[in-house]
Write a structure and sequence with these properties.
Chain lengths: 272, 796
């Protein structure tokens, strides 16, 4: 299926040919005629070439809106998909995200003092988005239902936008974020039917067991939690982490050089 | 308390106090419960048929956390959003905690003793009118106890599981092709395939852990081509290399067309076919067995499935049909086909299952890692219980069937029953069972009592206005339901029994890749909730006390007379004794000999305690160890293949080691869109919810992500009906009507002419609209296509 916006090559060629007889004068053709012939042939040739050129890459969003006969589609990169979802004018938005990003604190910027109360407040805010310590956090904003990789725009490296922090992923990159992370704000249109099942739960999830052990004042604390799916310490403890959980020395990025692992919290460990 | 703990407790007390002060200031923060010393233990996830293992964190008799199990081969430490929240499934506030008997419009709590007696009396009053409706969520021992109780004890074959609605067509497809059920390959194929074809399948939402296992390979730089054969654009399509849209029901024609091209071009695998295959076609009348046909007849039969004919019928372009055939013609590529409900919930379910197996066999894309036709299951033990324990109306454990006199005799010997106890005639399959229950006795409705365990037919049966609700108004029909929460089924029941759930009991299940898994009870069930298996054994014992002769074996011993370590009867029918012995282990060891009848060998119970599941056949080695089998019928891995053969279909239906390549003609669907009902209605699931949502709708994180059902519409269809996003649409079929909010360009995007509705929401019951037409051989209904009309609904 070709886009109706693109006149096909064959059409261009036929238009050229149909003009041909009317331009045939009696007697010897004049010089201007030959110029016309060359022009017409050139137009026809271009038309044929345009027609045989591979069709334009199609837009999955627009395709899905078209008829059901559409079938077969080449793979596209995440960038193309992101762009494609915005329609024909997508290009003008291509650096919008970069423009929105605010400069965050750098590794060498001074850290504000943090108290135990700050730490507890940060943990409470964390727990609000998790069923238990170690649960995948829910997504506190609406999500695009069918855009693989869209989450990575902000969460791959972390970002500050409009004063809000999008934390970097704490784990290695997995291909489908929404496999584990449920949206806390649904985009499903609501319907006015009363809930028929209990919405309350009596589940009380485990909380973060911390703080870590400190052998003497000034010693590096041990890691007080499992590091399963939490290999990237800077996600929570880096400069974009919540106030109360940040490391006082973000410039030192090899955390486990000094902080002993929390393997005793590892759920993979055999029961004692 | 150790010094360290004391210090931590003191620090924590100070911290909590600090938060308290903070909370007074800000009003929003809450103090966190401090949970330490969590015990972690393995269990398979309670939800789908993937069979991920989770680590369950418990403390003080409660589940407090979940983690992906890094030791599990299936999921390698990762889960999906349902798996990560599976522990919360136990803790909805409205758990059923007491047996309840209907009284007028409501229920009154009764004792377990009375409840068990009521069931036993219902059965002894009309033994032939009793039916057991079970589930692919029955654990293996639960299903085994129900199976033995019905077919071995009551000599009654009216036992069928909800798996009839889920994978019966997969079973008939395997039987028709290989003569024995369940896939030859396993999930390892997903790590090796160059091409993965999803046939009407959306694993990105329904088997997310398996789908991301494929995508992970791309992230590692491997090339995997994913071809999504779809009737609706889904999250799977978004990741696919190509998505090919076909018209509903025409997958049968597509498979035939691909085989037609391979045969005509001579690009099929001639050596593989000559050595290992035979051809089979339709008999008159049509049957599951069919008739043997020659290659020429096969070729002739395929000849109508030309590119032109198939393209016109299916909507897939000739170029794409040619491309698909070229993939199968290329023996250097490894191709895995995946399917689930799209092919199974199909009035030609047996046909399309057989044809996709046939396509792989014809092209030789079989038996090498990565080359596999793999059927996925939807329930945690659809394979382990419904299929392997055979809790189907014609089944016996281990792949045996009631219609075979040898099989009945062997089963009677295993169970030590007098000859002739097991009946030859298959019982009622699911649709029949509920139809008979919803028909008055004088009109032939000879089922008077149904006991439902682990499933919710009031929501999940098709066409419930015909199959479910009428029974509730017919005097003398008695519905017993064992469940963990109130559901559409319990609300209409006469007797409701509270059950233990998941890690509140011991269990064993079997996943899609023949993997048998085990877990131990970790926390107590709430209130008076008790194991389903105990409930069955207690009713059997009550019938024994009432003098039912079937409850004894031929030596006069009770059917479930489980012994303790000293050899004395453990009297497990008394709840106080039930966990004094391991009933699961006793029943599993009793069941194991059946598994050897069709080379589905299971290892001793203790092996499963140690493992994260083992794939059968699990064969004991000379050194005494037990070895699982990843690739069945292939000499390099399956020890049952005779030495010297590369591939051997040792349960061939033709008894000559040959698998059958089927020719099944295209049949039009029973109901198609018309002027009156111009659109297709397709139903299915979403990633957040599992089946009827009775567990997942009680998990806040999942419920808030997907709080209600909706109808997906194509913008053009919406425009015609005057509907926009969020408007209320009225859906009407010949069977029922329902009002739903419209979601355009939401989770999925159906093509023009198709609407999609998920079935998880018990307030918006789409199965009042669906069709109960089913595959003639598997008896599995088609939930994926019927005719519907959509209009603007009056405001509620």
């Amino acid at each position: 299926m070709r886009s109706p916006r693109q006149p096909s090559g064959e059409e261009v060629g036929i238009v050229g040919a149909s003009q041909h007889p009317s331009l045939f004068p009696e007697g010897r053709p004049r010089r201007s005629f030959w110029i016309l012939v060359v022009v017409v042939l050139a137009a026809a040739a271009m038309g044929v070439l345009t027609g045989t050129r591979a069709p334009q890459k199609r837009d999955p969003f627009i395709d899905a809106q078209r008829d059901s006969a559409a079938s077969g589609e080449a793979a596209r990169s995440y960038a193309e998909l992101r762009l494609g979802r915005r329609g024909p004018n997508g290009a003008i938005y291509s650096d919008a995200f970069e423009r929105l990003r605010q400069a965050g604190p750098g590794l060498l910027d001074p850290i504000e003092p943090q108290t135990e109360a700050d730490r507890q407040a940060a943990l409470a805010a964390r727990a609000d988005r998790r069923a238990y310590a170690g649960a995948p956090p829910v997504v506190p904003h609406a999500i695009d239902q069918r855009s693989p990789g869209a989450c990575l725009s902000c969460h791959e490296t972390g970002a500050t936008i409009g004063g809000k922090v999008a934390p970097a992923m704490s784990h290695e990159r997995f291909p489908v974020c929404v496999q584990c992370h449920a949206a806390a704000k649904t985009s499903v249109p609501a319907v006015d039917v009363p809930p028929s099942v209990a919405v309350e739960t009596t589940f009380a999830g485990s909380s973060e067991p911390g703080p870590g052990q400190v052998a003497w004042e000034g010693a590096p604390p041990t890691i007080p939690h499992s590091t399963l799916m939490r290999e990237n310490c800077s996600s929570c403890h880096g400069p974009l982490g919540k106030h109360g959980l940040r490391t006082p020395h973000p410039v030192r990025t090899s955390c486990t050089q000094c902080h002993a692992s929390g393997s005793s919290f590892d759920p993979g460990r055999a029961p004692q | 308390m150790k010094r360290r703990e004391l210090l931590q407790a003191a620090a924590m007390a100070g911290a909590v106090a600090a938060v308290g002060r903070l909370a007074l200031g800000q009003g929003a923060q809450k103090a966190l419960p401090v949970v330490r010393d969590v015990q972690w233990e393995k269990a398979p996830c309670r939800f789908c048929g993937t069979g991920c293992h989770v680590m369950v964190g418990t403390k003080n008799g409660k589940v407090v956390g979940i983690a992906g199990d890094p030791k599990a081969e299936v999921n390698r430490g990762l889960l999906c959003m349902k798996g990560y929240h599976v522990g919360l499934a136990l803790y909805g506030k409205d758990r059923l905690t007491h047996p309840m008997l209907r009284k007028g419009d409501g229920f009154e709590p009764i004792s377990w003793e009375k409840a068990i007696e009521i069931i036993a009396r219902r059965i002894s009053d009309d033994p032939a009118g009793f039916a057991f409706y079970g589930s692919g969520q029955w654990t293996i021992p639960e299903g085994y106890a129900a199976q033995k109780f019905m077919k071995g004890g009551l000599a009654n074959n009216h036992i069928d599981p909800n798996a009839r609605l889920c994978m019966a067509s997969a079973v008939t497809g395997f039987l028709a092709t290989y003569g024995v059920d369940e896939p030859a390959g396993c999930y390892d194929d997903l790590d090796e395939a160059d091409v993965v074809i999803t046939w009407g399948n959306n694993p990105a939402e329904m088997h997310p852990v398996l789908f991301s296992r494929i995508l992970d390979r791309r992230a590692r730089g491997e090339q995997v081509e994913i071809i999504d054969m779809e009737t609706r654009r889904t999250r799977t399509s978004e990741h696919a290399s190509r998505h090919l849209r076909f018209n509903p029901q025409t997958d049968v024609a597509i498979a035939n067309c691909l085989m037609h091209q391979l045969v005509e071009a001579g690009t099929y695998d001639k050596a593989f076919v000559a050595d290992h295959c035979a051809f089979r076609g339709e008999s008159a009348p049509r049957s599951l067995q069919g008739d043997a046909i020659s290659f020429d007849q096969f070729r002739q039969g395929l000849s109508k499935f030309t590119l032109e004919y198939t393209s016109k019928l299916s909507g897939i372009s000739e170029g794409d049909l040619r491309y698909l055939a070229s993939l199968f013609a290329d023996r250097n590529k490894r191709i895995t086909s995946l399917w689930c409900m799209g092919m199974n919930q199909h009035t030609e379910g047996t046909a399309i299952n057989s044809l996709v197996h046939g396509l792989h066999l014809l092209s030789g894309h079989f038996g090498r890692p990565g080359d596999a036709p793999t059927s996925l299951t939807g329930q945690p033990s659809a394979c382990g219980t419904a299929r392997e324990v055979g809790t189907l109306c014609n089944g016996l454990p281990g792949g045996l069937v009631v219609t075979n006199p040898e099989h009945r005799k062997e089963s009677e010997q295993f169970w030590n029953l007098p000859p002739g106890r097991i009946q030859e005639k298959p019982g009622y399959h699911t649709v029949q069972m509920w139809e008979k229950f919803s028909t008055p006795k004088h009109q032939g409705g000879d089922i008077s009592t149904i006991w439902v365990q682990c499933t919710n037919p009031g929501q999940s049966l098709p066409n419930t206005n015909k199959l479910f609700y009428p029974s509730r108004k017919i005097p003398g029909k008695f519905l017993i339901v064992s469940d963990v929460y109130p559901t559409e089924t319990t609300r209409h029941a006469d007797l409701v029994l509270p059950s233990a759930l998941w890690v509140e009991k011991n269990g064993m299940v079997g996943n899609s890749e023949r993997r048998t898994q085990q877990w131990f009870k970790m926390v107590p069930p709430p209130g008076e909730a008790r194991d389903d298996c105990w409930q069955t054994i207690a009713v059997a014992r009550k019938l024994h006390e009432l003098g039912h002769p079937g409850m004894k074996d031929k030596d006069g011993q009770f059917l479930f007379d489980i012994k303790d370590a000293s050899g004395k009867s453990a009297a497990v029918w008394e709840w106080k004794n039930y966990y004094k012995v391991n009933v699961d282990e006793a029943l599993f060891e009793e069941y194991r000999p059946f598994s050897r009848k069709k080379h589905k060998d299971l290892a001793p119970y203790g092996e499963y305690v140690k493992a994260r599941g083992l794939r059968w056949p699990v064969v004991q080695q000379k050194d005494g160890t037990w070895r699982e089998t990843r690739f069945r019928f292939s000499a390099f891995d399956d020890s049952y293949v005779t030495s010297g053969k590369a591939i051997q279909f040792y349960h061939s239906p033709t008894k000559d080691d040959r698998a059958q390549i089927w020719l099944r003609d295209y049949q039009a669907p029973p109901e198609t869109p018309s002027t009156e009902f111009p659109l297709w209605l397709c139903t299915g699931r979403v990633i957040e919810h599992w089946h009827t949502g009775s567990l997942t709708m009680r998990i806040p994180q999942l419920r808030q992500a997907m709080p209600n059902a909706y109808v997906e519409l194509h913008p053009a269809d919406a425009r015609r009906a005057g509907l926009g996003n969020g408007d209320l649409a009225l859906l009407e079929t010949r069977r029922g009507k329902l009002t739903l909010p419209v979601w355009i360009d939401g989770r999925g995007a159906p093509p023009e002419g198709t609407v999609f509705v998920p079935f998880f929401d018990e307030r918006l019951l789409i199965n009042q609209l669906t069709l109960d037409a089913h595959c003639p051989f598997s008896k599995q209904p088609d939930y994926k296509k019927c005719a519907v009309r959509v209009s603007r609904a009056a405001r509620r």
